[in-house]
Amino acid sequence: MRAFAGFFVSAAMFGFMIEGIPVPQLYLSLPFSVAWTPLAWHALFTVSVGYFLYRRVMATGSARARALLNIAIGLGLGVWNAYLWNVVEDETAGSIAWAWHPVSEFASQFLAGWVLFIGGHLLLDRFPPPPRPAPREFLTFLALAMLAWLLGWFLPLFPFSLILPFLLVVSLASLNAGRASPNNSWLARLFSLRIPARHYTTAILLPATAIATYATMKALEIEWETNVPVALITVPVSTFYWLYAILRANHAGHKTTPGPAPDLRLDER
Known about the structure:
By secondary structure, the protein is mainly α. 70% of the residues lie in helices and 3% in strands.
């Protein structure tokens, strides 16, 4: 699990930058906002489930496993989107109301998103594994990201905006500390996974289940505030694993013999 811990720290960095550079969600409800969208949504769902778990099961799992995975994801998204699409918050009264959108509107947007999701996996299948980013390339990307942060949210949300560089420094330090762990081929194997074309036939179960779930909840008017149970489960899980991954990487770094200076090759974590 040490290699996946490093992978999860990298996924968390993706979440921190997504929620802290183009949008300011990272800074608006501290400390809850550190975990809710960057860790619980992006690190846990977008990257760990949408990339790691999905590719692994679709490439190597049985037909039953592939079908169950797509149904499970579709069911979860259908229930969650019934809330996200239709809830209306009354800020003055501090309450919420429901205004159900037509199933056709949800279905058309969900199918568009699903096409992009599957299209991304098909592109990964078509191209060879990505090369290791050179230290200069990675540092250039990081510098551009920090420039966007300085020009965007640094001053308007100061001092809360300082949470982004702090989180990135902590994450990078843990990755560098654990770089000597004996898992250098783990990400290479993950990037090398290819999903056979015939396996994508089960992928249609994902939108079919999501749309059917949404339609059922609308027909029965099941008004369930899904964000609450989702947050109660995913926030502790993702926060615990991020902290565990950081501590484990640093512990591994202290136990290993010091090697050459870190070169920031993230695919070796």
